[in-house]
């Protein structure tokens, strides 16, 4: 267990290259190519994390200044996903999420109930998060562990369902995202897209990045949009001219640089995806295989970034306007792209539809994040997390995700029966998608 915890503590940028290297060798890739692929993916993640950190350190203080500037009182701080991941993995229960996730994945692959081979094992922390929440609520270790197992089933069901949309829109061949912070938004986007198609006027609005740029010229360019949004946020935060201009350039830089880091990630991943596909075709000619990766691969898309930056001020407005919300969006403002990225392929890049859907999604999510605040604070104490001067903490990732509300709500109301219901539904969904509907 100590060895596993040490491996987890290496972080995604070190864990993933090692895992990619090992999987590449197992898939028959030459050692030289396997090493280069793993190294390239690791470097891509480092670059991506640097860009996200740049956005976090820029937008977080601006958000707090904006709230202070207008005199709003939000006393629960959003500590961000790095803290949430550390808290989730920092408990005895949470540390079991990776071996549980690996075991469930291999079992599902063997019996043909998933097409996803997940190499993004560090992100099993999302399952550790819900398991630890249920444990904090019920003080039942076994139920917390069962919650992790069921959550793993849910993310593989989601990964199998959204794979075709990911390939169809983003162009990532044989790749899917069993990412528990991103995949749930897909479930909201699907029915909303059907609703939008039936609304007169809206069903004719084209709002893709390409359409916007064609209509507005250079003002429609995603980098320019990011710069303008940075200016607006700086003004609303009460910044002086220098700080406002610096924030504008930083947000513009994010929209320009992030796609380049994603391209680097894909450069490292493509050989692994191709090798995996070739191996499956040889060994299992009637089955397809998707490589499960971090949804970070999608956040560099112009439609994702543009919609996400619009959602930064929208999220802050929601936080101060929604009655009963206590959470101040802070640490996870820069990770809004991860919450909405899988809405984009459903809406075929339509930024207007994405923003409307994301507003509903995050609006409800703020109430979920507020509700779990006492539990999340207890989890932090159990993991010996340094809360600094904060007495109440939460996070948008994963606190504002509907699956968190589902697990915590049914776990509280129905205990084992509640989590069991989710498990039965997820397992039945996997059977339907991979057996009845067809596992190709």
Automatic annotation (TrEMBL):
Localization (cell): Cell membrane
Domain of life the protein comes from: Bacteria
Pfam family, one: EIIC-GAT
Keywords in alphabetical order: Cell membrane, Membrane, Phosphotransferase system, Sugar transport, Transmembrane, Transmembrane helix, Transport
Membrane protein topology class: Multi-pass membrane protein
Main location: membrane
TM annotation in the entry: 6-27, 34-59, 79-109, 143-163, 218-241, 289-322, 328-347, 354-372, 414-433
UniProt-listed InterPro entries: EIIC-GAT, PTS_EIIC_2, PTS_sugar-sp_permease
Residue span(s) of domain PTS EIIC type-2: 4-440
Keyword Transport: yes
PROSITE patterns xref list: PTS_EIIC_TYPE_2
Protein name: PTS galactitol transporter subunit IIC
Organism per entry: Lentibacillus juripiscarius
Organism lineage: Bacteria, Bacillati, Bacillota, Bacilli, Bacillales
């Amino acid at each position: 267990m100590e060895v596993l915890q040490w491996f987890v503590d290496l972080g995604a940028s070190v864990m993933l290259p090692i895992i990619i290297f090992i999987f590449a060798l197992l898939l028959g890739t030459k050692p030289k190519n396997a090493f280069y692929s793993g190294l390239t993916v690791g470097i891509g993640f480092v670059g991506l994390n640097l860009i996200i950190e740049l956005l976090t350190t820029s937008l977080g203080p601006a958000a707090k200044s904006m709230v202070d500037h207008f005199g709003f009182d939000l006393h629960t701080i959003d500590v961000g996903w790095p803290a949430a991941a550390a808290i989730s993995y920092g408990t005895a229960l949470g540390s079991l999420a990776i071996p549980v996730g690996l075991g469930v994945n291999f079992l599902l692959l063997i019996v043909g109930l998933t097409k996803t081979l997940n190499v993004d094992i560090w992100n099993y922390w999302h399952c550790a998060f819900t398991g630890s929440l249920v444990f904090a609520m019920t003080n039942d270790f076994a139920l917390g562990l069962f919650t992790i197992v069921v959550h793993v089933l849910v993310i593989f069901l989601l990964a199998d369902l959204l794979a075709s949309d990911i390939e169809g829109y983003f162009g990532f061949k044989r790749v899917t995202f069993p990412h528990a912070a991103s995949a749930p938004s897909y479930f909201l986007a699907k029915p909303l897209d059907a609703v939008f198609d039936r609304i007169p006027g809206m069903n004719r609005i084209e709002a893709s990045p390409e359409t916007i740029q064609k209509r507005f010229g250079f003002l429609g360019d995603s980098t320019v949009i990011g710069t303008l949004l940075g200016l607006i946020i700086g003004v609303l935060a009460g910044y002086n001219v220098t700080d406002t201009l610096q924030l504008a350039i930083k947000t513009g830089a994010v929209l320009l640089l992030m796609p380049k880091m994603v391209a680097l990630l894909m450069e490292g991943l493509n050989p692994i995806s191709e090798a995996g596909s070739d191996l499956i075709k040889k060994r299992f000619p009637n089955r397809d295989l998707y490589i499960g990766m971090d949804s970070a691969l999608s956040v560099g898309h112009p439609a994702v970034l543009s919609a996400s930056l619009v959602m930064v001020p929208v999220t802050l407005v929601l936080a101060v306007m929604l009655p009963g919300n206590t959470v101040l969006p802070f640490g996870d403002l820069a990770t809004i792209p991860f919450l909405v990225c899988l809405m984009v392929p459903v809406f075929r890049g339509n930024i207007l539809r994405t923003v409307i859907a994301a507003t509903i999604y995050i609006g409800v999510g703020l109430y979920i994040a507020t509700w779990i605040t006492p539990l999340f604070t207890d989890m932090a104490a159990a993991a010996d997390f340094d809360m600094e001067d904060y007495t109440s903490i939460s996070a948008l990732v994963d606190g504002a995700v509907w699956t968190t509300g589902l697990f915590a709500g049914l776990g509280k109301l129905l205990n084992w029966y509640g989590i069991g219901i989710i498990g039965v539904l997820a397992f039945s969904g996997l059977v339907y998608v991979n057996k009845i509907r067809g596992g190709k």
